[in-house]
C-alpha cells in the first residue's frame, strides 16, 4: 500500500476471483464458465471493418442492443441498463441505493460485502436455513437495499418465484436486486414481475449461459426510474463502459437466442447425470438450478479434495469461509469433462481407502 491511498480504503478486502492458472492445462470447473463456445452468429459477427472502427467510441447508449434485449424480455428500452459485466451493475447498485444499508443471505455471492464495504454501506447477512435455502422471512421487510442471487451461489439452489415476490413486495421503499446470473439453467426469472413492482431490479449476465464471460457484458432490467439512476452513475464514471465489439456480439447473441438455450439444456442434462453419480459415491449434493454443483463428502476433507483434484488436472472452487470449508463448487463442464472429473473423484476415493 502506498502512503497515498485514502484512509477509508486502507482496510478494504478485495474480492478474490477464481484461479485462471497458466502453468498447465486443467479441466476448468472453477469459475462457472460455459464449456461451449458462443453461437455461430456471434463467432461470425465481427469483420475487419469492426476492428478498423475501433478508432471510434462505442455508442454510450447501446441503443441497438437495448432494443433487442427489451424485445427479448418484454420491457421498454429505457428499462434496460448495459454494463461491463454484471459485477459493474452490482457496484452501481450499492453505490446508488445503499443509503439505508443492505441485507443479503449469509451465504451468497462473496462480492456483495465487498461492494458494500467499498461504498461504506453497512450490511447485514441473514443466515441460510439448515437445508441451505434462503430465509425468506428473514429477508423480508428489512427496509434496506435487498440483494438476492437466484439461483443462489455457491449453493445452486433456486427460490421459487412466489417466494422471491414476497421479498420484493415486503420492501416497497427500497430496491430489491435479484441477481439472475444463473437463471437460464432452470430458474424462474423475476423479470416476469417487472410490470408489478417499481422497486425490482433484475440483473443478468452474458458470462454464464451465453458463453461470453470474456466479452464482459451484463444488463439489468427495472423501472425506467431505477435505470435512469444507474445511467446517472454510469455517465459519472465511464459513459463508454461497453466496448464496440462487445455491443455487436451481444446483439448477435440475442439474434441467435435459441442456440444458448439449447446449450443450457445440455448443461442441465449433464448436471443431472453428475448429480446422480456423485450421490452414488456418497457425496451430499443439493439439487442445483445453476451450472455448478455444491458438493461435500462426509469422509473427504474439502480442502484436501480440492488440492487432490488440482494435482490430477481438474480445477474446482474451494472457499476459505470456515462455514463451507468442507464443500467445493464444481462447474458443470462438457460431458467428457465431467466423466474425467468423476474418474478423478473415484481415484481419490480409492487412494483414501473409501
Ligand atoms: C458470475 C456472477 C456474476 C458476475 O458476472 P459478470 O461476469 O461480472 O457478468 C454476478 N453474480 C453472480 C451470482 C455470479 O455468479
Structure characterization notes:
By secondary structure, this protein is α/β, with parallel strands linked by helices. 36% of the residues lie in helices and 12% in strands. It has 12 helices and 11 strands. The strands form 3 sheets. Strands 2-8-7-6-5-3-4 form a 7-stranded mixed sheet, sandwiched between helices. α5 (112-118) links the parallel β3 (102-105) and β4. α4 packs across α8 and α10 (257-280) packs parallel to α12 (335-351). The chain is globular and about 60 Å long. The structure holds pyridoxal-5'-phosphate. The site of pyridoxal-5'-phosphate (PLP) has 13 residues, from α4.
List how many beta strands DSSP finds: 11
Order of helices and strands: EHHHEHEHEHEHEEEHHHEHEEH
Cα-atom Rg, whole angstroms? Answer: 21 Å
Morphology? globular
Distance between the termini: 47 Å
What fraction, in percent, of the residue positions are helical? Answer: 25-40%
List keywords for this structure.
single chain, 36% helix, two-stranded parallel sheet, 354 residues, 7-stranded mixed β-sheet, binds pyridoxal-5'-phosphate, alpha/beta
Topology:
Blueprint: E1 27-28, H1 40-43, H2 48-52, H3 63-73, E2 80-83, H4 86-97, E3 102-105, H5 112-118, E4 123-126, H6 136-139, E5 145-149, H7 161-169, E6 176-179, E7 200-205, E8 218-222, H8 224-235, H9 244-255, H10 257-280, E9 292-295, H11 302-311, E10 314-315, E11 328-331, H12 335-351
Parallel strand pairs: 1-10, 3-4, 3-5, 5-6, 6-7
Antiparallel strand pairs: 2-8, 7-8, 9-11
Helix pairs in contact: 3-9, 4-8, 10-12
The protein binds pyridoxal-5'-phosphate (PLP).
The site of pyridoxal-5'-phosphate (PLP) has 13 residues, from α4.
Amino acid at each position: 500500500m502506498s502512503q497515498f491511498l485514502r484512509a477509508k480504503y486502507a482496510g478494504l478486502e478485495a474480492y478474490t476471483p477464481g484461479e485462471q492458472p497458466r502453468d498447465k492445462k486443467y479441466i476448468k470447473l472453477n469459475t462457472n464458465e460455459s464449456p461451449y463456445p458462443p453461437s455461430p452468429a456471434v463467432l461470425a459477427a465481427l469483420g475487419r471493418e469492426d476492428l478498423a472502427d475501433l478508432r471510434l467510441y462505442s455508442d454510450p447508449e447501446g441503443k441497438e442492443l437495448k432494443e433487442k434485449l427489451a424485445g427479448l424480455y418484454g420491457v421498454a428500452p429505457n428499462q434496460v441498463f448495459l454494463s461491463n459485466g454484471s459485477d459493474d451493475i452490482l457496484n452501481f447498485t450499492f453505490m446508488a441505493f445503499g443509503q439505508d444499508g443492505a441485507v443479503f443471505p449469509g451465504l451468497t455471492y462473496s462480492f456483495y460485502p465487498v461492494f458494500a464495504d467499498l461504498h461504506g454501506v453497512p450490511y447485514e447477512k441473514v443466515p441460510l436455513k439448515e437445508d441451505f435455502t434462503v430465509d425468506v422471512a428473514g429477508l423480508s421487510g428489512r427496509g434496506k437495499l435487498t440483494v438476492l442471487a437466484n439461483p443462489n451461489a455457491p449453493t445452486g439452489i433456486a427460490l421459487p418465484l412466489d417466494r422471491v415476490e414476497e421479498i420484493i413486495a415486503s420492501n416497497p421503499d427500497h430496491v430489491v436486486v435479484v441477481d439472475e446470473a444463473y437463471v437460464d439453467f432452470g430458474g424462474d426469472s423475476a423479470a416476469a414481475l417487472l410490470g408489478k413492482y417499481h422497486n425490482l431490479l433484475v440483473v443478468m449476465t452474458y458470462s454464464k449461459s451465453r458463453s461470453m464471460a470474456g466479452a464482459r457484458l451484463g444488463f439489468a432490467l427495472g423501472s425506467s426510474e431505477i435505470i435512469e439512476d444507474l445511467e446517472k452513475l454510469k455517465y459519472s464514471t465511464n459513459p463508454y463502459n461497453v466496448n464496440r465489439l462487445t455491443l455487436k456480439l451481444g446483439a448477435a447473441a440475442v439474434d441467435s437466442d435459441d442456440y444458448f438455450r439449447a446449450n443450457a439444456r445440455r448443461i442441465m442434462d449433464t448436471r443431472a447425470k453428475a448429480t446422480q453419480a456423485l450421490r452414488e459415491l456418497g457425496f451430499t449434493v443439493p439439487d442445483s438450478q445453476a451450472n455448478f454443483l455444491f458438493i461435500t463428502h462426509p469422509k473427504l476433507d474439502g480442502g484436501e479434495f480440492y488440492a487432490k483434484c488440482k494435482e490430477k488436472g481438474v480445477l474446482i472452487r474451494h472457499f476459505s469461509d470456515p462455514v463451507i470449508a468442507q464443500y467445493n463448487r464444481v462447474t458443470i463442464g462438457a460431458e467428457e469433462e465431467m466423466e474425467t472429473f468423476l474418474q478423478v473423484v473415484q481415484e481419490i476415493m480409492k487412494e483414501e481407502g473409501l
